[in-house]
Amino acid sequence: MSLRYLLSVSLLAMAIGTSLPSFASASGTFDFGKPAKAEQASRTIEIKVGDLFFEPKALEVKAGETVHFVIRNEGKLLHEFNLGSAAMHAEHQKEMQQMQDMMASGGMQHDMGKMDHDMGDMGGMAMGQGQGQMMHHGGGNTVMVAPGKTAELTWTFSKATNLEFACNVPGHYQAGMVGSLTVKP
Asked: Which residue from 85, 93, 160, 161 has the highest number of Cβ atoms inside 10 Å of its Cβ?
């Protein structure tokens, strides 16, 4: 995998980082829950990410429960772990594809010599936390995890509903990088 691919996908995620306001309030609260601190979690769920799958493929949590997700990318590609409804994922995928298309057509020019390649802090997004590099974007319901790295996301689920966890990097969801997340009453 090339540095150019990693950087392109990272910039893609960063560029749309604020593109989900129709689904979340300014505080990052969604109708299905909100971000939380790891120490508030009642349990931890480990997610293995590969090219192109999640393991496990299905999860169950309870309304009111706070879960700490530990996402380990054992693949060779940059991936996203995003909590949301099928409609949210569909919208997010359109935005990511548009951004990738714009970048591929030369719509975004960057001076590579001036960029911080350690991905320590890109555009004010949380990076490099936990055991590996990760990036939060959207309303706190998403982390990006680089190959060979681990990212963490903690979430309090507010109501019973059916959700998905998915990777919305263009083509990944369609290739099977989606799992079901049932929030029980």
From this structure: 93
Residue 6 buriedness (CB in 10 A; 0-12 / 13-18 / 19+): middle
**What pTM value is reported for the model?**
0.74
State the pLDDT at residue 104: 77
Q: Which CATH architecture has domain 3-184?
A: Sandwich (2.60)
> CA–CA distance from 111 to each of 54, 61, 100, 116, 117 (Å)?
35, 45, 18, 11, 12
CA distance 181 to 37: 20
If one counts every other C-beta atom within 10 angstroms of the C-beta of residue 43, the result is 9
Going from N- to C-terminal start, the domains of the chain cover 3-184
